[in-house]
Amino acid sequence: GAVVSQHPSWVICKSGTSVKIECRSLDFQATTMFWYRQFPKQSLMLMATSNEGSKATYEQGVEKDKFLINHASLTLSTLTVTSAHPEDSSFYICSARSASSTPTGKLFFGSGTQLSVL
Amino acid sequence: QQQVKQSPQSLIVQKGGISIINCAYENTAFDYFPWYQQFPGKGPALLIAIRPDVSEKKEGRFTISFNKSAKQFSLHIMDSQPGDSATYFCAASQAGTALIFGKGTTLSVSS
Questions:
Q1: For a Cys-Cys bond, which of A12, A58, B61, B64 suits B78, CB 3.0-4.6 Å?
Q2: Residue B1 scores a pLDDT above 60
Q3: pLDDT along chain A (118 residues), means of 10
Q4: What is the rounded distance in angstroms from the CA atom of residue A36 to the CA atom of residue A20?
Q5: Tell me, what DSSP letter sits at residue B93?
Q6: Contacts of B106 in chain A (CB under 8 A)
Q7: Would the CA dihedral through A15, A18, A19, A25 be positive or negative?
Q8: What's the CA gap between A40 and A36, in Å, rounded?
Q9: Residue from A113, A105, A92, A108 nearest A29 by CA
Q10: How distant is the Cα of B35 from the closest Cα of chain A, in angstroms?
């Protein structure tokens, strides 16, 4: 099956610093990538949708200036948490959809990044 | 507005029993209904998925039952094993857009 690689798997940073999370599709071209956030014992909440070469679309309530998403190629999307604060501590998960996904809608998920802001 | 409602929140099943998790949706435009399994600290893994033109799909011990008129679908895990203990999420999407997830069910299979 298709593989989505997400790095780092965990990161600890000081308050006020920025953290970049990478999401790569290893064996397919990801026309669309989605970023989710998951707090402990809660569901996955969609943060934003990004299409290669265009600006990301953010969900209501997600600060686009804090969570910078770049989808510069068909195999790489990055999420940068800028000026991170303790309330940004969460599990961030990327997912990708291939143009040839069958059925349409099938998403491949990364293994997630646990961010802890001190 | 919760578009996908999942129940129960938690479930305890004895080894060898059947685990049943239910989901209901509101948007009749949804056309893809997957179930995901997630272990602590890991990303969700696709278990099985169904489209609305099919009423049931079985893969190994996992079965999805789909009721289009009732806007409900369920996951049945037959012969539940301790290794099945995890959190299960139902989800739905429309025309390849982002998946909308249910709130999750924590399954514990006792040995």
A1: B61
A2: no
A3: 90 96 91 93 94 89 94 91 96 87 75 96
A4: 15
A5: B
A6: 41
A7: positive
A8: 13
A9: A108
A10: 11
